[in-house]
Amino acid sequence: MNPLLREIRHNPLLWLLAFVPVVLAIAQMQSEAHTLLFVLSVLAIVPLATLLSHATESVAAKTGDAVGGLLNATLGNLTELIIALTALGAGQYILVKASIAGAIVTNTLFMLGASFLLGGLKYHTQEFNRASARFQAGLLFLATVALLVPSVLIAGGAALHPTFMQELSLGLAVLLIAGYALGMLFSLRTHKEAFASVDAGESHEASWPIGLALATLAGVTVLVALVSEVFVESVQKAAETFGMSSAFVGFIVVALVGGAAEMASAFSGARKNRLDLSVGIALGSAAQIALFVAPVLVLLSYFIGPTPLDLQFWPGTVFMVLIATMTTALVTTSGRSTWFLGVLVLMVYLIFAMTLYLLPDQA
Amino acid sequence: MNPLLREIRHNPLLWLLAFVPVVLAIAQMQSEAHTLLFVLSVLAIVPLATLLSHATESVAAKTGDAVGGLLNATLGNLTELIIALTALGAGQYILVKASIAGAIVTNTLFMLGASFLLGGLKYHTQEFNRASARFQAGLLFLATVALLVPSVLIAGGAALHPTFMQELSLGLAVLLIAGYALGMLFSLRTHKEAFASVDAGESHEASWPIGLALATLAGVTVLVALVSEVFVESVQKAAETFGMSSAFVGFIVVALVGGAAEMASAFSGARKNRLDLSVGIALGSAAQIALFVAPVLVLLSYFIGPTPLDLQFWPGTVFMVLIATMTTALVTTSGRSTWFLGVLVLMVYLIFAMTLYLLPDQA
Amino acid sequence: MNPLLREIRHNPLLWLLAFVPVVLAIAQMQSEAHTLLFVLSVLAIVPLATLLSHATESVAAKTGDAVGGLLNATLGNLTELIIALTALGAGQYILVKASIAGAIVTNTLFMLGASFLLGGLKYHTQEFNRASARFQAGLLFLATVALLVPSVLIAGGAALHPTFMQELSLGLAVLLIAGYALGMLFSLRTHKEAFASVDAGESHEASWPIGLALATLAGVTVLVALVSEVFVESVQKAAETFGMSSAFVGFIVVALVGGAAEMASAFSGARKNRLDLSVGIALGSAAQIALFVAPVLVLLSYFIGPTPLDLQFWPGTVFMVLIATMTTALVTTSGRSTWFLGVLVLMVYLIFAMTLYLLPDQA
Q1: Confidence (pTM)
Q2: Phi-psi region of B2 (alpha: psi -120 to 50; beta: other; left: phi over 0)
Q3: Strand A126-127 to strand A336-337: parallel, antiparallel, or no bridges (unpaired)?
Q4: What is the pLDDT of residues A63-85, one digit of tens each?
Q5: How high is the ipTM of this complex?
Q6: Nearest to B270 by CA among B54, B50, B76, B120
Q7: Residue C352: its chain B contacts at CB < 8 A?
Q8: What are the pLDDT digits (tens) for C299-334?
Q9: Are A344 and C138 a contacting pair at CB < 8 A?
Q10: Do A358 and C164 touch (CB under 8 A)?
């Protein structure tokens, strides 16, 4: 267990692990202290997510390029998946959908924008692998089209059979997973030379022995699931206390909590002038949530939740995902970045965050 | 008549010509066998469209660059025009509109995507003339804006005079034709050097003597018109039998039938690593339908149909055209293609096809 | 006063100054002659705007790069600001909003398109500074997102508190001004080398002594304010006389009048093969109106108008701004222009102008 303890000693973020037993204990004793439980569960999820992503990377590093890439691509957003599954089991469909869309928007706008800004404050101009960024932007574009279709049909005033939206969502989910699988075949096999520098970046970190990595993966997954349950139960009531709309909580707070670990890696990459790494994490993570996590949730909802999950989102949500995808497409055409590009992207995110914060809750 | 017969012997697609007399005979005798007539008319239109496009090219090749380009640009989608005119005469306005929009979407997404995929399965990376693709994408963008305007006004809840939409459609049609004419001046005259490789590609095919070409053009046009009448009369009832929504039939089936000949050329170009040819056919054909066929139908509707045709489309249709144009713009920025780009573009088409297939018919 | 008189003698546009006393006198005597007053005020504003922009540039030239850039960036659209403030004071909110959106659309589509066309008729291909155009396109994209948000919320059917739209507009205004300020820091300070050729272009014109420039600035501002009052009072009634919808007047006529001076500079730049100058004026002016004039009007509306101004626009308006921004993004990716690119951009403008002209006034 040496490498794990060493890592905990060196990474202050992991000291937050102390909150894991605290939140689970208080959840047992004082299940009505929603605000306290919300804050504690946020503080506990962040270090767990960090461990989870490090464990995934370590397993991936040991298993060779293709399988490793596959593992990273499927388990890289395990935290988001567990939180969403917990919310799904609790029947909180609005929270599930808000957290999916919020994770896409937060990863593309906040994580990408802050990476550009942090990198640009240190370096005059930075460059990144355009081919790789375009590939992720293409995947995001496909997912956005899939998410737009149900909303456009509704907006068009179509008289729809009650089962139509479920059939459509199931079909879209299968198409998106197929697109994602083919995308992995493309980026890990047939054209992997185009994605070279991103992979090189990620293997730099020290990796754990395989036994430790697998044990951590299993143990931490259980812990994340337990803490997520507390988080999902408390988030609604806590939001009311803080005067936040539930849209703001699902879209902004959950997404920032779930992505904290990846953000730490992306920002540190940008400060080291390895912007390829940052762009890869931000866009790769967004694409993974859109083309893997969301469809998997739709499929699993047939076994877990009270009713199947569909892909019909609130129009405002779809709009934000669309703008995030367009921003990504515009930003990745040049392959260069400066601090002001970061400001522009962050400002778009701020506009969304402010709107959701001000939005009254009946909406 | 030797070259025509030789071509028929060598091109298995043309053996389908045998269905032309069959469908016309059965239409006379058993006009109620809708499903049979639908299938037979589809099988008969495909070889006729192939002959028509070969005859047009042969005439174009004999008449020199500028006039030839003009001929190709106006008669290149004669099949689509005849089918739409037949539907217009029968007062089937929804079918007319669906087939226009469907042809744009099918050419940009299916024809382009399948060309990328087929070419990419054989060659690691393929390149194409960016300037030419951008020109076509620009024309498509203009047409998309024109198609969007009426829908946005309706969606904005404007209280509109009954004659307003007709005046607007007439104005838009004139503007689009003017844009198309200026585009031909640009690509065939003032800046033709930028479009060089596409033209070079198309002149490769063996061309017929001018007399044969003109006779084929005239004769086949009459045959297409006759078979189109059978097709338009049977399509609605046949769709019900197959359980297909009329939106699916107009958008997908009619577009695939009408464009079969061009698809054969585009795909064969991609397999021969002449992707310029494929991109030119796919986008050129889409632009031609949007900026020439559709406006001409609006103008002709004042003489042919029971009431004038307007350019107000169902919102879902406009959305698909918009996404097709955005996809084109994104895809043509780099001028390179791989198999996965083809998958991405085809997936967008699949999403649309699936949605239209599932969509209940009241919509 | 020599340089001012010399300029007036050499610039025929300035001879229109004779209409300034005429319009003010007639407004006193015959305040009911709306059509006459409208025509005269248009004729009087054009030369005043020309003087105003020349005076601003002269002051800017004397005060060094950074301060000068700042002055140009804030006072460059003083005419538009004064007209909008006058309309604001008169409580004509629809005119204010139409003139803001119209100025953005007119500058990006008409000024840019006509520059491309006029330049392209003289030169086969022209090039312009892509980095600078992209920067302005980025600012416009940010502003468009801000303008879209309120409309999308309304379209999404959200039940909104009456104060929500005001709070949101205030927040958006502050964000936009902050974005604009950071953009100036970027383009005038930290990365000014990327904007080099545009600045070089503008300093070519002969500049006035500082005293004359300041006196002109002050005096002409007062005159523009006086004439604007006549213009705003007469525009509605005059439009009825000419059979123009008020949307057409606000969007097209006011924008063309307010931007006449800048158009003269942009077109002359294009004819001299200094397309950087034209693109800089067109996009810079649009960005300035979107990120500086519009938010300043929102902030000032708390002190001037009867009720605060919000940023909720008519959906058709938002659509046109969105298309204008997309056109800008598409056009600026290549950094090259030909006459046909100008035609394409102008055609989009024509589609909008025609639609607004045909649109019945109840809308």
Answers
A1: 0.91
A2: alpha
A3: antiparallel
A4: 766 677 677 767 778 888 988 99
A5: 0.89
A6: B120
A7: 149
A8: 999 998 788 998 888 888 889 999 999 999 988 888
A9: yes
A10: yes
